[in-house]
Specification:
Blueprint (H helix, E strand, L loop, with lengths): L4 E4 L1 H14 L19 E4 L5
Antiparallel strand pairs: 1-2
Length: about 50
């Protein structure tokens, strides 16, 4: 059977990852400097035939 899975929204994720990468470079970091970033990304459930 086709497996149930998840699909991320790639364009917004790519944009945010690029922002985070630039923020980790000292020349682009804000006054607080580089920091650890933890985020939760929304995923779309793709329901198929598996349980």
């Amino acid at each position: 059977p086709a497996l149930t899975g998840f699909r991320p929204r790639l364009e917004p994720m790519g944009r945010r990852l690029a922002e985070m990468l630039l923020a980790s470079i000292p020349a682009f970091a804000g006054p607080e400097g580089a920091r650890i970033i933890r985020e939760v990304w929304p995923l779309e459930l793709i329901a198929r035939e598996s349980d």
